[in-house]
Design brief:
The structure is a homohexamer of 247-residue chains. Chain A is an alpha+beta fold and 247 residues long. The first copy, chain A, has helices at residues 83-86, 91-105, 110-113, 131-152, 186-191, 220-246, and strands spanning 20-24, 32-38, 41-51, 64-71, 116-126, 168-176, 179-182, 192-201, 206-213. In chain A, α2 (91-105) packs across α4 and α4 (131-152) runs parallel beside α6 (220-246). Chains A, B, C, D, E, F: Its EC number is 2.7.7.56.
Chain lengths: 247, 247, 247, 247, 247, 247
């Protein structure tokens, strides 16, 4: 695939991520916490570790990891009403919370975790496209921190438990003005003919592939290009996660 | 890709659909209605055509198509509580309703529809895996009937309006016991390592690709096999839809 | 009472039921299931048998039978919003669910049932008047099947337990154009001055009598005529139930 | 029918009402208001008259009358949770609100009312059986007052408008210890084999008949006795209403 | 502070309470019940005593006292929709319920109460300003009665238990037309520049002070005047409570 | 009043504020936005300016200012469930949102604002006591920025419009270990016998005074000390706000 060098709305190459920042320990109380930034997209990921599991999992010897995603009312260009005020969670929120949870569970060995629960709260403080992929990428780091915190407190199954089987990161790809591009900002997102979210493990395998033709359906060749672009982007994000965790 | 001929739980070849039945005009009141069966999975799809569009679309000259998915309490092996009684729609229901709506809109030319709304109600009477893909496949036929019904009543933009740009069908694929298979029944679904839903237009292009690693992440080769299998299944379903509409 | 032979909207005699069809085992999963049709009114009744009883009944040695009624959005001439989407059950739905539950409990010996619960889900697939009476009539058959199913699995109190004391059926009667008629279809229902639902046991006694003057209040003579007509209709329905169960 | 003179729990004859008190103008703000007492059952009925009608009735030239029933948490022997706190109206509340509304509308000529709305709020301050029948009986008086209040303010269709076609009252009857009795108190109600609510107009015709076999189904002879008893009770209540309105 | 003798809307002196009436045992079922009237404001306070405490308090040896406030739809000049119908409790209702609960707990020794719960339901039958302060003042008397009732039934910690440490009463004060006044009626309330609720114990100390500048912010001198006025009003209410309890 | 110099939990003097930080323009989209920190308490305040007012205010020539307060699930030591997931706003949230709105409206001249609406979203990212007072203090600055932003876009009543009559700030005071202290952190808050929130305008007058005896009721002398301490704290906060706005 030829990487286009045409100028994107923010001057990036088609296979170029936005500036990625991962700030660990952004909160004082949470067992793990990260403020993750994909350009202007800013998501606060807090990992809460609690002993015990939901009732349906008791006695299984296995832990549980879940996630909740939400957006502050003024994360976006115009204000959105609060879901708490409306009295119900919208379909999009539900869908993204479930995606984040599944993505993290893909790299968790629940037996090694022991009967403990980790909830990942991903709150979008500012949105500029790619909030769900930023959330997954940041939540992984918060999750890793929460697990090390639990290890230190001797709350895991044993001292050498390895609840994390691999890392996980996510990125969006899409076809904008007929060309495949990586990590779409909001302006690109609204103009994308096809929009795809790719979630990969650190070893390059796929956890989730979600592609949607917003306008014109896409053919297999386009799909292949998007998969290549997304997989490469996840590799890059994996390195940034590693670097952040090494600090 | 070698098509395995090993016996599946119900004796099908790996690339074989279940028995598909599409019964049109199953209801007396709806503008279009289909009882679609993928083996034991049975979904009632009702298309309701109403003149006018939601407020946010008024004056646009464009129509609107949306969908709602639900499952009867005893569609499944054990009874599920009603969402109406619980007082809220669950995340899975929301997600599938949105998927069906997007899939149908992918083949609709909203300008040709004129300022009219079509709601597709997809109610699962009995579930045995693949309810969302059966719903999309059946809803397309109900939608086509509702459009012809509207044409007869002169409610479309004009007598020759072509609101349908193409047909759309969907099928699930997955990796079961290490092998890619088409159109999973419930027993296969719960044992699938990877589960993917493919939505394609009649001309073989992709509208949605949603793959999830339930257990082990999947690699690119597996992903390619699944895409091949799903695309071929959709072609077959497209022919069945055509035959049903020709009656 | 003189039975009028004037032609009704669908040509029936004033004391004539619509065509009644009771299709047993319409679903594969439910312990009992019936698709009941009163003319164009079509209700799917599913009986779910589960061991155990609600908390307030534990240790009583008695079982519990309850019912939930609902209507698909496009069961009717124009589409109704889903109660799950509105986030609450309407008054009419509540009222009918309670009526069905009470009617079935009237013929249940809860001691003979043992500490088991049977939920009857009555979902109206198509409505043309008399949905609640069709639901009761069909639900009785599904209930009988669920009990025999439980007996076969040795889940009842003992092998000879008789949880069913009698059969139960229901029918609507009303005064249309000044004349008492049996089993009103929708068009008759909206024009009825008085509308009454009669629920009777197989031995001809009353379980419920619910009469409402929609327009002009009714006098005792009219009430007596309606009671005669309804009781006779229930007898006829009881025979149809017997025949269905004998198959 | 032989009226039994056996002593009931509170010493009444089988056809004897409890002490009935109707206190008009119990509130300062409402257009009509009544504290109605059937023995220890105490219901506050407030009629709110407002100009205009709900949207679906605009331009019809007709008014609208509706009712809402509720019970204070400690109206009963043990405290019930508030429906507002639970976040939803229960089935019983819905059912009774609808019954009261229908009963009052049976004596209203909505054309004579003009495009005005009257809401009857019936709040049970203390419950000792028969709250719904007390509510209907009291609400009629509050309604009559609200209409005269509106007439004085020249809000009716014209000066001689007769929105009230008749009066309406309600009473419960039931079979207790095998004998038909009138106006059951709570203790009788829980022991009743059959429980029936009768709503009649001042001229002795029926508006609603709702009979339920709580235990053993009832036969036609018993039903006839209950209807006689209830109709006679309503006549008596109609006189008490007249007397109250004459003050 | 000079007490103004200018005529208020209802002719009272600036430091004069409205006519206060406390009617005990207004209900037959509740362990304590009071109809309290501050002029035309009329609140029914019912105290429900139940053995046991909420789960989070079990085994603590301490009891719990809480309150719920609500207003009947037609307590006010124009009808308000029911919160149960709207499906949620409004902010104002929540706020007042919490205030009443805190105020009563301030005079309760939960150890002396033993593991028992008392719920105070304060339902406003008619509102003319000062409903929350009337509710607190009346609820205290209902609470005292419920405690004596429990003592008689030997449900307290022991025969000499003193769950009540002191009495508590409340009154509103405000600046109307530039002058501090006591116990505002509705008409004064809407015109008040500053509105303050004072809750005091029988020994003259403060439990709650809640002052709000509705229009112009208030200075320290005004605040001092309001505190003096409110504290004196509470002393007077305490005497009225004593007198009521002495009956 | 003698200012105690005893060491508080974090070493502050009794009349000493925590470190206060006000970071303006923390968000890119909002018309005004502030991250305000009172020690470890961190609140994100976003002001959303929109043309037009709620329906009930249309045509009045006056604008509207309102606020919504919320806390992220892991702002606190242990995770709290989301109110959106629970489907309703809790009493505390309601109460604080209303307090913030009233406090800001106290310094707004709605006529000068013109028919525009400003919503202040105050989301607590981290909580360590005093979140509502931090929210008010920060929201004022965001509000001031939103107004200047609107002035620049010529959206105010006129070029010289002065919608802000004064500044407003808030602080908590309380009696901890028997001594009055300023700006309580969480650990002090839970141990406080009395807890009071003071809201003052820049000119030193009171907008809100909310004092609650958590344990022992407080006397007038203690109340006076708390008012002195709080008023002085607000003066200090006013200077910090000025400095922040001057940058």
């Amino acid at each position: 695939m030829a990487i286009t060098t045409d100028v994107r709305v923010d001057g990036r190459a088609s296979d170029q991520l936005r500036d990625i920042t991962i700030s660990r320990n952004w909160l004082d109380h949470a067992e793990g916490s990260v403020l993750v930034e994909f350009g202007r997209t800013r998501v606060l990921c807090a990992a809460s570790f609690t002993e015990g599991v939901p009732r349906w999992r008791k006695g299984s010897g296995q832990g549980w990891v879940t996630a909740e995603y939400a957006m502050l009312p003024r994360a976006t260009n115009t204000r959105n009403d609060r879901e708490a005020v409306k009295g119900k969670i919208g379909g999009r929120t539900h869908e993204i919370s479930r995606l984040i949870g599944r993505s993290l569970r893909a790299v968790i060995d629940t037996r090694e975790l022991g009967e403990n629960t980790i909830v990942l709260d991903c709150d979008v403080l500012q949105a500029d496209g790619g909030t769900r992929t930023a959330a997954i990428t940041g939540a992984y780091v918060a999750l890793a921190d929460a697990i090390e915190n639990a290890r230190a407190k001797k709350l895991l199954r044993n001292a050498n438990a390895k609840p994390l089987k691999d890392s996980v990161a996510a990125v969006s790809v899409g076809i904008v003005k007929g060309k495949p591009v990586l990590d779409l900002c909001y302006e690109e997102d609204v103009n994308a003919g096809t929009d795809m979210n790719i979630v990969c493990t650190g070893d390059g395998r796929f956890v989730e592939v979600q592609g949607t033709a917003e306008g014109v359906p896409f053919d297999r060749a386009e799909l292949d290009q998007l998969l290549d672009l997304g997989a490469a982007g996840c590799v890059e994000l994996g390195l940034i996660q590693q670097k952040a965790l090494a600090k």
